[in-house]
Amino acid sequence: MRALIISVNMGSLDYEAHAEEFQMLAQGAGAQIMDTVVVKRDRPDPALFIGKGKLQEAVLLADHHDVEIILFDQALSPAQQRNLEREFKRRVVDRVLLILDIFALRAKSHEGKLQVELAQLQHLSTRLTRMWTHLERQQGGIGIRGPGESQLELDRRMIGAKVKKLRERLDKLNRQRQTQRRARLRSSTLNVSLVGYTNAGKSTLFNALTRAGAYAADQLFATLDTTTRRIWIEGAGQVVISDTVGFIRDLPPTLIAAFRATLEETIHADLLLHVVDAASPQKDEQVHEVNKVLADIGADHIPTILVYNKIDSTGLSPRLERDEEGNVVRVFVSALQRAGLDDLRTAIVESGQILESNTFHDENL
Questions:
Q1: Which of 199, 202, 224, 330 has the most CB atoms in a 10 Å sphere around its CB?
Q2: What is the CB-side half-sphere exposure of residue 116 using CA atoms within 13 A?
Q3: CB contact at 8 A, 209 and 231
Q4: What's the average model confidence in pLDDT over 172-185?
C-alpha cells in the first residue's frame, strides 16, 4: 500500500531514532513509503496537529504520488484525525493505530488475538464517544431528533458487550495460566523470562538456548505471543524460559493494559534476561524504555542480567562482566552465531543458586 509519512519533530533529543523507528513500523505493516514530510513544531495544532502550510505541502505530495494512506508518527485526537482525513481525502493512521494494526497482523495464539481485539475496541470506544459529542449536546430538533443519540448508544452498547466478553475469555485463560504457574512453582523450577526492546534478538536467543523454532525476523514486533520452553542446564536443573513481546518507546497505554496478561510471565519470573541490541546506537535509550515498562507492570524488583546481543556486528567478543560482589551483571553474546551462550548459561546457574540461597535464608529467619 503506497503511503506518505508525516514525521513531526517536537524538539525531542531522540527525534531521529523516533522517526527511524516509525519507518520500520510502517514497513512492518506492509507500507510502501513514497515520501516523508518532516514538520517542526513546538506544540500540536489543536485542529490539525500540523500547520496549514505543511498540510498543503503534504496534500500536494499525496496527490503527486497517488498514495492510498497517510501515516502520522504521533498520536492524534479523534478531531485531528477527522480533520486531516477531510483535507487529504484519504485514510489517516496515527502511531497508535499503526501499532495496533501490526499487533493484529502478528498475533498468532488465541490469547494474543483476543488481546489485540480488546485493545482495538478500547481504542475505538474513545473515538466513538468523541465522534458523536456534537449530537449528544443536542436536545432534538429538525433533522437531529434521536437518530444520532440512538446510534451512539447502540454503538457503545455493542462495543461494551464485546469488550466484556473478551475480558471474560481472557480472565479464563489467565486463570489457566496461573494454575500452570503454580505447578511450576511447586516443582521449584527456575523461571527465566527474556525481555527487551523489539528487534533486539530475543527470539533468536530463545531459539539458540532452547533449540525451539520460535519465529524470528529483522523487524519490529516479529513475535507477540509468549513462548515457553523447559530446558536442562547443568548446575541449575530444569529451567523454564519464556520469550515475551518486545517493548517499544511510548507504547500506547491501551496496549500495555491489554498485554498485561502476556507480560505476566515477566512479572512472575525469578530472573529476567534483558536482551539489548549491542549494535544499536540507541541501546541506552532502549534499555531505559524497557525499564520504564518493567516498572509499569511491577517487574522492576526482579533480578536482571543485561544480555548484549548481536556482538558479531560490533567487533566485541563474548564475555561476562561482574559487579563488585562478584555477581554477573552483563553477558555479551551473539545468538545468531551461538557465541557466548556458555557464559549466559553460567550466569543463569549462578543467579539460580543465589535465588535459592536467599529463599532458604528467608524461610529460616
A1: 202
A2: 20
A3: yes
A4: 66
